[in-house]
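Quick one:
INPUT:
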């Protein structure tokens, strides 16, 4: 499919048609998804050389693709290019980078980037909060994740279903059932529900609880 798209793209040039930014974006994204980052980078260079100035969407697609391929250093290089240009990174760009840093195990860099948003006058949205909380939970920093969770509402960003499930799963993985139960009740009261992963963790913990196992053995005999 991606080769067919590239063939049509090349035909446009042969016919004297200049692809617009949307066309480049679609093809660059497709190359990354097909596991062909080198082709994506070549298209990005081609876009610049043919007078199509990359915008913040272009850079975000490139950064997302590079992060997904584990090329965090190249992604950060692009961030510097954005900052040196007249463009300004938006929350989508920052969210992608925070996700990439967390997945690469660079939680301190992610925390620093997250803090810089406030310093630059930006208000993180629910997606940015979810990204940093997920990263903190992955690294076992559940107390920090919980603080971020509570701070987001104070900052005017209401947690959604995803945020609740992330923090609840963090406490469940640390076998803190009382705190997880408290948050589950809070989540339900706000009209949200547990996702499949949260339910699986609850069941797994209950099944590993000696008291529950003893009760089940008694019930089997009845």
């Amino acid at each position: 499919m991606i080769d067919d798209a590239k063939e049509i793209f090349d035909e446009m040039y042969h016919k004297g048609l200049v692809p617009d930014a949307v066309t480049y974006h679609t093809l660059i994204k497709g190359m990354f998804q097909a596991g062909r980052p080198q082709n994506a980078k070549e298209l990005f260079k081609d876009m610049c050389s043919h007078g199509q100035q990359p915008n913040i969407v272009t850079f975000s697609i490139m950064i997302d693709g590079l992060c997904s391929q584990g090329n965090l250093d190249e992604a950060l290089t692009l961030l510097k290019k954005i900052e040196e240009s007249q463009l300004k990174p938006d929350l989508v760009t920052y969210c992608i980078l925070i996700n990439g840093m967390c997945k690469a195990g660079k939680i301190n860099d992610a925390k620093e980037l997250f803090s810089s948003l406030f310093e630059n006058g930006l208000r993180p949205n629910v997606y940015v909060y979810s990204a940093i909380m997920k990263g903190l939970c992955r690294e076992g920093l559940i107390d920090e994740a919980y603080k971020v969770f509570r701070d987001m509402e104070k900052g005017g960003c209401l947690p959604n279903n995803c945020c609740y499930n992330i923090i609840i799963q963090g406490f469940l993985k640390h076998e803190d059932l009382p705190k997880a139960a408290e948050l589950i009740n809070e989540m339900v009261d706000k009209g949200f529900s547990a996702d499949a992963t949260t339910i699986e963790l609850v069941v797994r913990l209950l099944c590993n609880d000696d008291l529950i196992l003893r009760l089940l053995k008694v019930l089997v005999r009845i």
